[in-house]
Amino acid sequence: MDDQLRLSVALKPELVDRIDCLRQEWGLRSRSAVLERLLEELLASPEPDAR
Question: Which residue range(s) make up the domain with 30?
Answer without folding.
Answer: 13-41
